[in-house]
Design a protein that fits this description.
By secondary structure, this protein is mostly beta strands. The chain has one helix spanning 2-21, and strands at 56-58, 62-69, 73-82, 90-95, 100-103, 114-122, 128-138, 144-154. Helix content is 12%, strand content 39%. β7 and β8 form a beta hairpin.
Length: 160
């Protein structure tokens, strides 16, 4: 009798964890785009139609802030256009450092339209030459684009 009761409690716990662990939703409560909206040109048959894909085209893929003072937060807006033939969906934008925070459009970008990937860099605790990569993952081919920010972080108290 005792083993059956323990088993029932264990199964109930697993069911609760499964139900709440599999909720759909993005990181930090952000809404995510359903996977069926992403057009992956690679198929099991090996055929693909790359001509109908979206194309993310940045005006520039690198920005140099020049000399900035340690502790300063600077930001830059990387402008892009979807020069492809279908909707562009940016799934995620990640940076190589916690000091670099990107923001990006969460809705599909129609062909011919554009958007901005904004990157904020907090130089607190940083010194010298800094280069940070930001990876933009989207439904393009290839599916990632790397943009870069650079800065020379100086401490005015120690500079001569």
């Amino acid at each position: 009798m005792m083993n059956t009761r323990k088993l029932a409690i264990f199964i109930s716990l697993i069911a609760v964890l499964f139900i709440f662990g599999c909720r759909s939703g993005g990181k930090n409560g952000q809404e995510t785009i359903p996977a069926d909206l992403v057009n992956n040109p690679n198929s099991a048959s090996g055929t693909s139609d790359k001509g109908s894909l979206p194309v993310i085209q940045f005006e520039e893929v690198e920005h140099d802030f020049g000399r900035i003072i340690e502790g300063e937060t600077v930001s830059y807006a990387f402008k892009f256009t979807n020069s492809g033939k279908s909707d562009l969906i940016i799934g995620e934008v990640s940076s190589s450092c916690g000091c670099t925070v990107p923001s990006y459009p969460k809705t599909p970008i129609r062909p011919g339209e554009g958007g901005i990937v904004k990157v904020a860099f907090n130089s607190n605790g940083k010194r010298g030459y800094q280069s940070k990569n930001i990876v933009v993952a989207s439904n393009t081919q290839p599916n990632t684009t790397v943009i870069t920010i650079k800065a020379q972080v100086v401490n005015p108290g120690t500079e001569k």
